[in-house]
Design brief:
245 residues; Double Stranded RNA Binding Domain; 2 domains; six-stranded mixed β-sheet; 4 helices; 38% strand
Length: 245
């Protein structure tokens, strides 16, 4: 078996770190004009964005209209929707981004693409395709978003080899977890929906720092499968995960 040593960045303390998901928000603010377009609601994209978010279950307002006092007095109760465009010669590619009031990414969709020649049809189809990854995520408003505080400096340790991991306790996956992209990685939620794991990107491909609120470890990909590995009373636990990115 090929031996592989991974550099693992384990956080010594993660208390106070913002772990917001779309479930923390009831409201979304949509701009009347996107930065990559020249006109208000060009191609009907802004209205379509509002309609699709409302179909998902959010309460949506245009950001420059009169807002309810609840939001006007505290913009942090709402996410801000935006679209980014990836330039292409024959393809329209859009990505939906939902950010909190401090500009942190709460959700980023997969790229939505269209090869329609008509601009109106192409932009609308690309946006609807971008919404597919959002619509796949369970959504239930569960409460207000948390506040972002500081994260302590990480320490560097060495992850166990595959042979060492094999010596620990292993458990099988029980359900599919859905990945919501954040500014630093992903959050994995179940169908409740409830946040199960927070993943932080590392410099190693398919290897994340992981925290489930009780244990801190790593989530890594081995032989095409995802595993959450951590120590409990000096015993290595390796838990297989089913993750839908």
């Amino acid at each position: 078996m090929k031996r592989c040593l991974l550099l693992l960045l384990l956080f010594t303390a993660l208390s106070g770190y913002a772990q917001n998901t779309i479930n923390n928000y009831k409201y979304v603010l949509v701009p009347e004009q996107y930065s990559f377009l020249k006109e208000v609601n060009q191609y009907g994209l802004n209205n379509l964005t509002k309609n699709l978010l409302e179909e998902k279950g959010f309460t949506v307002y245009f950001d420059n209209k009169d807002l309810p006092a609840e939001i006007a007095n505290n913009k942090c109760k709402a996410m801000n929707a935006d679209l980014t465009e990836k330039k292409g010669l024959f393809t329209t590619t859009l990505t939906l981004v939902l950010k909190d009031c401090q500009g942190n990414v709460v959700f980023k969709s997969k790229e939505g693409k269209s090869r329609e020649k008509d601009f109106h049809a192409s932009y609308n189809e690309a946006l609807e395709n971008a919404f597919v990854s959002l619509n796949e995520l369970p959504y239930t408003f569960t409460g207000e978003a948390g506040k972002i505080e500081s994260v302590t400096t990480p320490e560097v340790v060495v992850a166990p080899t595959n042979q060492q991991a094999a010596a620990g306790e292993s458990t099988r996956p029980s359900e599919t977890l859905y990945a919501q992209e954040t500014a630093n990685g992903f959050q994995l939620i179940d169908t409740t929906p409830k946040k199960v794991l927070t993943l932080f990107k590392t410099s190693v491909q398919d290897c994340f720092i992981a925290d489930n609120g009780q244990y801190k470890g790593i989530v890594l990909k081995k032989d095409g499968k995802w595993f959450f590995e951590y120590y409990n009373n000096d015993k290595l636990i390796s838990k297989e995960l089913l993750i839908k990115f």
